[in-house]
Design brief:
Keywords: Membrane, Transmembrane, Transmembrane helix. The chain crosses the membrane at residues 6-24. By secondary structure, the chain is α+β, with helices and mostly antiparallel strands. The chain has two domains: 1-30; 31-176, Immunoglobulin-like. The strands form two sheets. Strands 3, 4, 5, 7, 8 and 9 form a six-stranded antiparallel beta sheet that branches. It has a three-stranded antiparallel beta sheet with strand order 1-2-6. It starts with a helix and ends with a strand. It has three helices and nine strands. The chain has helices at residues 3-29, 105-110, 136-139; strands at residues 33-43, 71-81, 87-96, 102-104, 122-124, 129-134, 147-155, 166-170, 175-176.
Length: 178
């Protein structure tokens, strides 16, 4: 083999290596969203303290007049971008696994409900996260023991005419409403 053949082979390997590296770099930089739910349960207890130690209480303890609301739970929908480029989230929400009941954040806000979190559509920066909080007045739609998942819709670029421009991400774990 001559020197020009070696140089041509080296150039071929370098160009193939550069092509593979650029493809891997593109894949690494792609926005990758992860959706997580964090459930918080607030329990209300009514206690009455009496200063009697070792003796019966001086007066009988009566139950409260009106029953307590029991527990109120809320869900935090956390969207995490683990990619190296920012992306735009068009909508987030909660739904039952079978899809029968759904809380859609943008629809609920349009109907006048208060949901804490950034306005939609929201930009999630690279290696960043955003959080929306769905309070008890909305989570009452789900009966106790319902399996829930969180979802987020991300805009994606238009490449093919028959392809949807919104990609849906769903939590990898099913959560149970208390």
């Amino acid at each position: 083999m001559t020197a020009s053949t070696w140089i041509a082979l080296a150039a071929l390997f370098i160009s193939v290596g550069t092509f593979i590296w650029k493809f891997m770099e593109t894949y690494i930089r792609w926005p990758r969203l992860g959706i997580w739910l964090r459930q918080s349960v607030a329990v209300q207890l009514n206690l009455k303290m009496t200063p009697s130690i070792g003796k019966p209480p001086p007066e009988p303890v009566n139950p409260p007049d009106e029953p307590a609301s029991g527990q109120a739970d809320r869900f935090d929908i956390i969207v995490v971008n683990s990619g190296a480029e920012a992306t735009t989230v068009s909508n987030v929400g909660l739904r039952s696994v079978d899809g029968s009941v759904r809380i859609d954040v943008s629809l609920e806000r349009n109907n006048g409900k208060e949901i804490r979190g950034p306005d939609l559509p929201a930009r999630v920066e690279e290696h960043g996260s955003l959080t929306w909080t769905v309070e008890h007045d909305l989570t009452r739609r789900f009966s106790r023991g319902t399996k829930l998942v969180g979802f987020a819709h991300r805009y994606r670029t238009y490449h093919w005419w028959c392809r949807n421009t919104i990609k849906e991400y769903v939590t990898p774990i099913e959560y149970t409403k208390n």
